[in-house]
Specification:
By secondary structure, the protein is mostly beta strands. The protein contains one helix and 14 strands. It has one domain. Helices cover about 10% and strands about 45% of the residues. The chain is globular and about 50 Å long. About 20% of the residues are buried.
């Protein structure tokens, strides 16, 4: 009887430790190219829902194709240059706008955390080529003191709100083609809550 009680107690304790965290589906809702009249309609955007922590969205026009994967702490994207000439990502002017409409510089892979507010080099994509990038708002990276120290990356979405449903986050990704700047403004909706 004592063994049965201990087994039942262990099962109860372990089941209470299971994760009951909620995640949000974040989907691409709108894309505006601020410097050019690009026809953006529902057919240019495809959203794929994932029951786990990530949502994937795709946008394409005659110049670019981009697939976004939004994760808890970062945004990943694969950008394809569909042009027959090179294009540039103007990293120093790329911006993340959080759900409170606060604007922050974007950091990308290869940028030293200690230099998160310094000037960034542009990325050049050869004609008909692709680039994979991971970006994080600079405000989400901060140093930690202590025995092991280092840097920490916080979650994209703030935890101090009771619900983020209906809120939006945005990314401004400036791209230059033959000296002409195109500001792609991606708007993502926080559309539904999913328990893991």
């Amino acid at each position: 009887m004592k063994k049965v009680f201990i087994v039942v107690l262990v099962i109860i304790v372990l089941s209470s430790c299971s994760s009951n965290r909620a995640f949000y589906n974040i989907t691409l809702n709108d894309v505006v190219c601020l410097n050019e009249k690009i026809s953006v309609d529902e057919s240019n955007i495809v959203n794929v829902f994932n029951v786990k922590e990530n949502s994937t969205s795709k946008y394409e026009d005659r110049s670019i194709s981009i697939v976004w994967e939004l994760q808890r702490k970062q945004l990943c994207f694969a950008l394809e240059n569909r042009k027959e000439i090179a294009i540039k990502i103007l990293w120093d002017e790329a911006v993340y706008v959080d759900e409170a409409n606060q604007s922050y510089k974007l950091m990308h892979v290869g940028v030293d955390y200690a230099g998160k507010n310094e000037k960034r080099s542009d990325a050049i994509l050869a004609p008909m080529s692709k680039i994979n990038e991971t970006v994080v708002p600079s405000k989400n990276i901060y140093p930690v003191n202590g025995e092991y120290g280092g840097w920490v990356c916080s979650n994209l979405l703030k935890r101090d709100k009771t619900s983020l449903l209906g809120e939006r986050i945005k990314v401004l990704l400036p791209i230059e083609v033959k000296g002409k700047r195109f500001d792609y403004y991606f708007t993502f909706n926080i559309s539904s809550k999913v328990k893991s």
